[in-house]
Design brief:
Blueprint lengths: L2 E4 L18 E4 L3 E4 L5 E4 L2 H17 L5 H10 L2 E2 L11 E2 L2 H4 L5 E5 L7 E5 L4 E2 L8 E2 L3 E6 L7 E6 L5 E6 L5 E6 L4 E5 L3 E5 L6
Parallel strand pairs: 1-2
Antiparallel strand pairs: 3-4, 5-6, 7-8, 7-16, 8-14, 9-10, 11-12, 11-16, 12-13, 14-15
């Protein structure tokens, strides 16, 4: 993976390279607390600092049972937090989200209400879904992320794994009512598109 650095506001750090094709994800790289060789507390900046966060998260995913490097890479990209200002700068247009990345056993729904707890469980869907009103059916097992665009709630940003096993985004208008989840805590919850911010399916590891 190729990692860019971002600052506290999620924007690309001015010292970091960028590319929508060759830079995969952004991670914290500004004023990161570290210890110098002399034992002093210092704040470091750089993409080398950012890459360490991504490597650590990749190792956590590996420890949970996923051994395929491409699957780990796709998981890091799919679980990243979408940041519109990174569109055109980073392939994932997102920043590293370690908590979602390691939630490999269950699907995770984050509501647009930031005070609401995440929902975890299993997405109730057929093998092929009519997710978009302006596209053909999609293979559900290839959907890696669904985000309702904060700047345009009538549009979805979908990350989809293509035949080349690369995750690519596309945009569409939503179909249906939203996401239905069999919650891990019991019961079924329907999250309408108007309340959804982000949905990341699990990796179906056993």
């Amino acid at each position: 993976m190729t990692v860019a650095a971002h600052g506290p506001d999620g924007r690309r750090a001015n010292f970091s390279n960028f590319s929508p094709e060759y830079v995969d994800i952004a991670a914290p790289g500004c004023a990161i607390d570290q210890t110098s060789r002399q034992g002093a507390s210092v704040k470091n900046f750089g993409t080398s600092v950012a890459a360490a966060f991504v490597s650590f998260t990749a190792a956590l995913i590996r420890s949970l049972g996923e051994e395929n490097p491409n699957a780990i890479k796709n998981r890091l990209i799919a679980s990243s937090r979408y940041v519109p200002k990174l569109d055109g700068l980073v392939a994932a247009a997102g920043i590293l989200d370690p908590v979602k990345a390691v939630s490999v056993y269950e699907d995770v729904v984050e509501k647009s209400d930031k005070g609401a707890a995440w929902l975890t469980g299993r997405w109730k869907r057929p093998n092929f879904v009519n997710l978009c009103s302006d596209r053909d059916e999609l293979e559900a097992n290839r959907i890696r992320k669904i985000t309702v665009l904060p700047q345009d709630p009538s549009r979805l940003r979908v990350l989809y794994e293509n035949d080349d096993h690369r995750v690519r985004p596309f945009f569409c208008s939503p179909a249906g009512t939203g996401i239905v989840i069999d919650q891990i805590t019991g019961g079924t919850a329907t999250v309408p598109w108007s309340e959804l911010f982000d949905f990341v399916p699990g990796m179906r590891l056993t």
